[in-house]
TrEMBL record:
One Pfam family named in its UniProt record: BORCS6
Origin: domain of life: Eukaryota
InterPro entries attached to this UniProt entry: BORCS6_C (IPR046465)
Species name: Stylosanthes scabra
Residue ranges constituting the BLOC-1-related complex subunit 6 C-terminal helix domain according to the UniProt record: 50-144
Positions of the UniProt region annotated as Disordered: 1-32
Protein name in UniProt: BLOC-1-related complex subunit 6 C-terminal helix domain-containing protein
PANTHER family associated with the record: BLOC-1-RELATED COMPLEX SUBUNIT 6 C-TERMINAL HELIX DOMAIN-CONTAINING PROTEIN (PTHR39708:SF2), OS07G0483400 PROTEIN (PTHR39708)
Amino acid sequence: MESRREQAESDCVSSDNYNSPIPETETETPISESTLEGGVSAFNQAQLLRAIEVVERDSFAIAQSFTSLFASLRLALSNATATTLDHMQCFTDASGRIQESVLDAATKGNRYINSCLRLNEEMKNIDGLASQLKILRRHVDSLDAAVNKLLQVP
């Protein structure tokens, strides 16, 4: 367990050295064991202030990095949401138009079917009418033949 903690602490120290370079005019003073044995009083005030400034600067850089990261994430989420909303609106419009077209086609199809049914009913009556016309035609032909005979008698 402690080896993991020591490894994590060493990772933090090494990542701080790479991520936040210290200007050449300001360098960190390493803390040696002899300084620690003497206690805090062995540090002079300037070194302590310099260490606090380094921690403050690193903390500020980390805070700016997190702020930038969250702003980027917020923008990406906003773009994804806006795109999704645009696609949903387009889908809604398209499905509405398709629904209107389907209803129109169904109405026209029903009208066509009803017209065909009416025509079918009328065609049933036409057979009787056709036979009546044939009979009427025969009567007209026989009447015409009788009139022609009367006119040719002299």
